[in-house]
């Protein structure tokens, strides 16, 4: 019986190309429950999936069913989960059988003649991790230095933020990209708010002068131009244009700096000058953003400069800028603009739910593009507002980023190894732009299909989970739902691996479940930072990408946005620690206040 069963498995695995149709993403065994997640190809609607396991006595006596969780995603795969009670006879190994359309497919984990060995999984360590506290204490100031080196670099005008240095040979990123530069200047202002850096007033002065100039250059598609030459002239080569996230992010950068500067100095004249003075920049950008043709533009390009349509990242940036603008204008007594921008913002509010697809329970990158994408965690961390819509505490976001992280397991060989660092501490999955990306970061992508993980995408997961943990701590409770339960209970490295949770229950700060969820979020966020720590170059160098096979730096070197992402993740961690220690974070989530009535 035993022999014939094993022989059957061997034959079927050898002939069924295990893992194409069914693939175990991860599992845990806490001594009483074998729990895990499976990727299942949607071969047909009706499916049955069994987890079949062995005991020390042998004979493969155990089986239990897996259950549908979500999907299919655009790659045709569904997520299934299992939670099998294991009695005192114990468990030694398991495999998975997938019955569909009259066929059986198997995943036994390691090819022919072996199965998934099961030993008791140590529970993940909870809370902020000491090695990551220590790493940020050196990597953070190094990133600040490297980021600033790309502001007004040699051979560029004052106010220019290059996307990456001129010395790059792999690709030419020696331009002032509006998106990248705005995110970098937002980071400069966040450093200023945090009190750890005082260069913002002078850097914003140059940046304002440069911006005022480029807003007046006759640009090919107007303010939606994605990138500008470092001497302030129009870039006229072919490119995906317009990219309408740019003016929105840029307006946000100036308004947030203006608010911080006013709070610190009381100097209203400079605030008015940024708004619409002799070198005013904010009104120009927001009047562009508020035009329906610019936020409902199906021809607009996404942040990766590849797809046209209405995208979550872009619309989120526009929504937040317009809400910020409505409040800012009202505070300066400009009722007319305040009303116009508030009206546009409210029109966008009504479009946000279109990114959520109830058929899959997932947030897509576009309102007619269900693809999962790092733009989703990026949008949730950069563009979230106090209303919480598609923010780091929105369960639709948490479910989506969890499913996406699991998809990256099969995307990159580096995610299929042992996933521990040199000290045996857990690594996360390395995250890239999206599944199936082929852009390897070089000028001419000749090797189709070799895109790699990105530092800024992996760090977006850290920042997201720091922010989720912070919000739960501030709320003093967390409610488990059918949408967040797969993530909360799912196996590491993608899930929180917290057991004993019940959907529909709210756990208060004093409960074990609350402590496990928040503690696991903190250590999971740190494991994403640890992956970046492990693959960063000497002296904390970050490129755009790191190799999908070796983890070595690849793509352009010293991408400014990579350093900005390390700094914003570090600041989110500092804010979380301030809350852990009973203080207040430097919370820069926009408050949605009512605008003044005329
Ligand atoms: C260059 C863009 O910057 C990048 O995002 C895109 O993936 C490639 N072009 C596509 O070729
Ligand atoms: C390519 C990326 O896809 C895009 O988002 C970025 O703006 C440019 N590189 C410049 O860094």
What does this structure look like?
This protein is α+β, with helices and mostly antiparallel strands. It has 16 helices and 17 strands. It has helices at residues 2-16, 130-149, 178-194, 200-214, 245-265, 268-276, 282-289, 292-295, 312-331, 335-349, 375-382, 395-411, 455-475, 485-489, 512-535, 560-580; strands at residues 22-29, 33-41, 47-54, 62-65, 67-70, 77-85, 93-100, 103-107, 116-117, 176-177, 227-228, 356-357, 362-363, 477-479, 506-508, 543-546, 553-557. The strands form six sheets. Strands 3, 4, 7, 8 and 9 form a five-stranded antiparallel beta sheet that branches. Strands 1-2-6-5 form a four-stranded antiparallel beta sheet, covered by helices on one side. Strands 10-11 form a two-stranded antiparallel sheet. Helix 2 (130-149) packs across helix 15 (512-535), helix 9 (312-331) packs parallel to helix 11 (375-382) and helix 13 packs antiparallel against helix 15 (512-535). The longest helix is centred in the last third of the chain and has 24 residues, at 512-535. Residues 1-18 and 588-598 have low confidence and may be disordered. The structure holds 1-deoxynojirimycin (2 copies). Residues 163, 173, 177, 179-180, 303-305, 561 line the site of one 1-deoxynojirimycin.
């Amino acid at each position: 019986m035993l022999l014939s069963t094993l022989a059957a498995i061997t034959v079927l695995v050898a002939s069924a190309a295990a893992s194409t149709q069914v693939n175990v993403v991860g599992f845990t065994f806490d001594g009483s429950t074998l729990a895990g997640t499976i990727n299942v190809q949607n071969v047909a609607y009706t499916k049955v999936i069994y987890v079949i396991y062995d005991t020390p006595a042998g004979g493969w006596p155990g089986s239990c069913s897996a259950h549908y969780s979500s999907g299919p995603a655009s790659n045709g795969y569904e997520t299934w989960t299992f939670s099998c009670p294991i009695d005192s006879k114990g468990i030694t190994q398991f495999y998975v059988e997938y019955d569909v359309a009259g066929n059986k497919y198997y995943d036994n984990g390691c090819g022919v003649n072996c199965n998934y060995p099961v030993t008791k999984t140590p529970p993940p360590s909870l809370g902020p991790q000491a090695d990551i506290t220590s790493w940020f204490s050196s990597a953070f100031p190094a990133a600040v230095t490297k980021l600033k080196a790309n502001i007004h670099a040699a051979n560029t005008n004052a106010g220019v933020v290059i996307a990456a240095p001129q010395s790059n040979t792999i690709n030419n990123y020696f331009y002032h990209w509006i998106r990248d530069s705005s995110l970098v200047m937002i980071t400069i202002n966040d450093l200023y708010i945090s009190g750890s850096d005082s260069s913002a007033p002078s850097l914003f002065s140059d940046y304002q002068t440069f911006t005022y100039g480029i807003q007046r250059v006759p640009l090919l598609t107007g303010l939606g131009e994605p990138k500008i030459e470092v001497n302030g002239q129009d870039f006229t080569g072919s490119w995906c244009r317009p990219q309408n996230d740019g003016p929105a992010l840029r307006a946000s950068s100036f308004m947030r700096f203006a608010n911080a500067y006013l709070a610190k100095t009381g100097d209203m004249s400079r605030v008015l000058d940024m708004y619409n003075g002799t070198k005013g920049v904010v009104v120009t950008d927001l009047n562009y953003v508020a035009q329906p043709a610019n936020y409902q533009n199906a021809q607009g390009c996404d942040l990766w400069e590849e797809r046209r349509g209405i995208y979550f990242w872009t619309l989120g940036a526009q929504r937040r800028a317009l809400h910020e603008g409505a409040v800012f204008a009202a505070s300066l007594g400009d009722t007319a603009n305040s009303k116009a921008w508030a009206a546009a913002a409210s029109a966008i509010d009504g479009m946000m739910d279109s990114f959520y697809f109830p058929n899959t329970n997932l947030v897509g990158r576009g309102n007619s593009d269900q693809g999962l994408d790092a733009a989703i965690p990026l949008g949730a961390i950069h563009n979230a507002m106090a209303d919480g819509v598609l923010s780091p505490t929105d369960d639709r976001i948490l479910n989506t980023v969890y499913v996406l992280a699991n998809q990256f397991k099969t995307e990159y060989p580096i995610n299929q190894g042992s996933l521990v660092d040199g000290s045996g501490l857990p690594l996360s999955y390395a995250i890239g732009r999206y599944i199936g990306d082929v852009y390897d970061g070089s000028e001419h992508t000749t090797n189709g299909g070799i895109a790699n993980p990105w530092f800024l995408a992996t760090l977006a997961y850290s920042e997201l989970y720091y922010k989720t943990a912070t919000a739960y701590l501030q709320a003093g409770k967390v409610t488990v739902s059918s949408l967040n339960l797969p993530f909360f209970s799912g196996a590491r490295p993608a899930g929180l691996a917290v057991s004993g949770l019940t959907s529909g229950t709210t756990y208060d700060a004093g409960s074990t479940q609350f402590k496990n969820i928040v503690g696991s979020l903190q250590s999971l966020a740190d494991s994403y930072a640890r992956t970046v720590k492990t693959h960063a170059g000497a002296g904390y160098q970050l490129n755009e990408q790191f190799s999908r096979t070796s983890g070595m730096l690849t793509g352009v070197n010293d991408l400014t946005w990579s350093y900005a992402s390390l700094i914003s993740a570090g600041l989110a961690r500092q804010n979380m620690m301030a809350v852990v220690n009973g203080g207040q974070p430097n919370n820069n989530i926009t408050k949605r206040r009512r605008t003044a009535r005329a």
